[in-house]
Amino acid sequence: MTQGRWWQSGLVWVAAATFAMAFKGIFARLIYQYQVPVNALLVWRFFLAVPIFWLIARWINRRQPRVHLSGRQWLVCAFTGALFFVSAWCDFHAIEALGASISRMVLYLFPALLMVMQAVEQRRLPGGGQMMIFVVAWVGIALLLLPGWHGGEVSLAGLLYGFGAAICYAAFWRTSQALMKPLGSVRFNQLSNSFTLLFMAGFLLPTLSPEQLAVSLPAFGWIVVLVLFSTVLPFFVLFEGLSRSNAAEAGVVAMFGPVVTVSAAIMVFPDEQLGPLQWLGVLLVLVSMGALKLLKPAARPATAAAGR
């Protein structure tokens, strides 16, 4: 690779997307400091992001033939939108209750939960290596939840939100595979995010008063940063990176996203300092999820995760 072309490497693009996505929880916590309700943040995020997704996706697919979905495919697409709606709702509540770092580590368990779902579908127990990875990951989460951070208190509601986000996201990823191949990742995310927006409009928007939606100018500025830097941009940067690199290598690069989140949270928020045992928990979760990806590399899973 020549010095003038280092930026053309697919792994550089994947790393840039991973870095951007890692700041989602950081931006969310900054927005919460302006007394913005979780539901209001979610509504603003999707009402701003989905139209941008549509514009860029239409430009990318401008020379692609139109794909006609069957009735069943539309239902599956709507179901994935519903799954991600619940996952995002739980995730942003977890960020509010647990902080950016711990909520990200809990959500990062979704590959292990996906492994369990696959085992249930196939009616067989996971292999010995997979079971060991699963145990190590949960030991890591247990260490993370020991006293020594957030004033030594752990919110049960926050944990339930975090695990709910991870379970729904694993189900979203598993269900989306039926549509990723016939539609392509760009068109699939375009449609799935649109259904998520409809669920946001139907279930969250009616719960908000005009005063709750009328966020302050600084808060709105951070919402725009969240939408552009940690939602829309990472998807298309990651899409380009995966087209230039090996999926297994890209997955290893992407696993460092939680490290970025935890490091940034510690620097920005005084209440997210971790003790030695919590850092050991972070290491165990990262190593276990990285081993799971290396043990059984999946076919470009990160594309579906972009902007999520």
TrEMBL record:
<feature type="transmembrane region" description="Helical">
    <location>
        <begin position="73"/>
        <end position="95"/>
    </location>
</feature>
<feature type="transmembrane region" description="Helical">
    <location>
        <begin position="38"/>
        <end position="61"/>
    </location>
</feature>
<feature type="transmembrane region" description="Helical">
    <location>
        <begin position="132"/>
        <end position="150"/>
    </location>
</feature>
<keyword id="KW-1133">Transmembrane helix</keyword>
<feature type="transmembrane region" description="Helical">
    <location>
        <begin position="12"/>
        <end position="32"/>
    </location>
</feature>
<dbReference type="InterPro" id="IPR037185">
    <property type="entry name" value="EmrE-like"/>
</dbReference>
<feature type="domain" description="EamA">
    <location>
        <begin position="157"/>
        <end position="288"/>
    </location>
</feature>
<feature type="transmembrane region" description="Helical">
    <location>
        <begin position="101"/>
        <end position="120"/>
    </location>
</feature>
<protein>
    <recommendedName>
        <fullName>EamA domain-containing protein</fullName>
    </recommendedName>
</protein>
<keyword id="KW-0472">Membrane</keyword>
<feature type="transmembrane region" description="Helical">
    <location>
        <begin position="188"/>
        <end position="208"/>
    </location>
</feature>
<feature type="domain" description="EamA">
    <location>
        <begin position="9"/>
        <end position="145"/>
    </location>
</feature>
<feature type="transmembrane region" description="Helical">
    <location>
        <begin position="220"/>
        <end position="239"/>
    </location>
</feature>
<dbReference type="InterPro" id="IPR000620">
    <property type="entry name" value="EamA_dom"/>
</dbReference>
<dbReference type="GO" id="GO:0016020">
    <property type="term" value="C:membrane"/>
</dbReference>
<dbReference type="Pfam" id="PF00892">
    <property type="entry name" value="EamA"/>
</dbReference>
<feature type="transmembrane region" description="Helical">
    <location>
        <begin position="251"/>
        <end position="270"/>
    </location>
</feature>
<feature type="transmembrane region" description="Helical">
    <location>
        <begin position="276"/>
        <end position="295"/>
    </location>
</feature>
<keyword id="KW-0812">Transmembrane</keyword>
<feature type="transmembrane region" description="Helical">
    <location>
        <begin position="156"/>
        <end position="176"/>
    </location>
</feature>
